[in-house]
Every structure is written in structure tokens, then in C-alpha cells.
Amino acid sequence: MLVFLIGDGGGKYILVSPDAVNAPSEAEEYCIGLVPVIHEERTHLLFRGIQKFKRLIIVILFYDVKNILINPGFWLIALLCVLFYSCVFPFQKFASELMINKYGISDNLAGTIAGLPALGALILTPVFGIYLDCKGKGASIMMLGAAMLIGVHCIYALPFITNYLVAIILMIILGIAFSLVPSAMWPSVTKIFPARQLGTAYALIFFIQNIGLWGVPNLIGWVLDNYCIVGNENNANLYDYTIPMFVFTGFATLSFIVAYLLKVADKKYGYGLEKPNMKDC
Q1: Average pLDDT of 108-136?
Q2: What would the pLDDT profile of 241-262 be if each residue is shown by its tens digit?
Q3: CA 162: distance to chain centroid?
Q4: Residue 238 forms beta bridges with which residues?
């Protein structure tokens, strides 16, 4: 049955069938449940027509959004998300060209190497997830993954390191970091917010993440076109990727700082990010 979730703005909710709008005198017949029981004098708000329902639903949504936005954990986890993924997905967009231009790797092999982080995440993320469920240390693991990103992008930025084996090893380490941080970050959201706010919290985090995933590739592309062209071959530009890689290193450093601040906030507010998800494991 279709129902409305109605609230009074004070954390009290009632589930009511929309049929009650047409038969307020028979409200008890259409009442699905109280979560918890609201004050009797406020029940008249439920039977003033469908427009009143709509206004109350909007009030509930904005009330939850406000509570999410004033939670320090939200901004830290959202910033960590956008900074971390901005170091991975936009980098992978340019990784094949980096392998070809700097390390002299063939076109076919360059694509395979660039895909190693995704393959590593496929294998390792469940392993790290099981470890987190049993042992915890989610905030520390996010710091570790961010620190690994700093090392990877910094070494890629060094112009005198051009050995293809180094490039492959760094991509493997990137795959490990790409498994560590998400396996700890996404479960942490459920510890920072109550269950009734999770959908909205995830939506806002993804909204902020997508701003970064839109903006960072444009930033890197602008840097390449304006500061990094070093030649032309077969009507295609050749690039020096030193500056873009230092930009990625900067984002990785910021993600480490945010992960550290999240660990500090965990101690202050008691989110439980360092605690295991399962008591008996």
C-alpha cells in the first residue's frame, strides 16, 4: 500500500495512507503505524489535504539535510571522498598516455597497466572489507591509503624516473590504495549518520564527489594544453606530465590531511570508525 511518511519537525513520524485525506473521520482505519506515537493535538495536521502532506514532507527532508550538513563528519567524509577519487579516476583517464610518453610502453600494454587498479580493487576490496569487519581501524586505514596515493603520484611526477617496471609497481600500489580507502570509507558513513539519514547523506556525498570528478579532469586537461606540450608527433601533441602529477600529489596530500582530521573527529565525537563492525568474528 502507498503511504506517506509525515513528521512534525521534532523527530516524530507517522505513516498514513493517502486515502485518509478523503476520509479524515476514519483516520484510524488508514493509519498504518506510529513511529513513535505523536502528540494527539498535532494529529489534525495530517488531515488538511494533500498540499499539507507535501509541505510536511518537504519540512522533513530539509530538517534531515540540515542535521547532516551541521555534522562535522559529513564534511570530512565528503571531502575525503572527492579528494581521493579525484586522485584516481581522472588520473586513469591520462594514465595510458603517461605510460606511452614517459615510460615508452606500447599502446596495448599501456592500457593493460592503466587497468591494474580496477583489477586490484576487484580482488582486494572484499579482503580489506573482511579485515575491517573483524578488526576495525577504519580511520587509520583511510590514512594509510591516502599516504600510499601521495607516494604513487609523487614518484610518477619525478622526471628522472622512467623505468617501466617502476610504473607497473606504482600502478599496483595505486590498486591497493584504491581498495583500502573505499573499503573503509563507505561503511564509515553508516557510523556517522543514523539509518534514517543514510540515503540523503550518501546522495549529498555523491553530489560533492561528482563535482570533483567533473572539475579535476578539466583542470588537468587545461594544465596539459597550456603548460605541458613538449612536441608534436604524427599530428598529436606530446606532453610532459610532471606538473599534472604534482597536482595529483597535492590532492593526495589534502586527502591524507582530511583522513587525519576524520580520525581526530572520531575520537572527539565517538563515531566508532576505529571499532570493528562485528563483535564475534
Answers
A1: 90
A2: 999 999 999 999 999 999 999 9
A3: 33
A4: 231
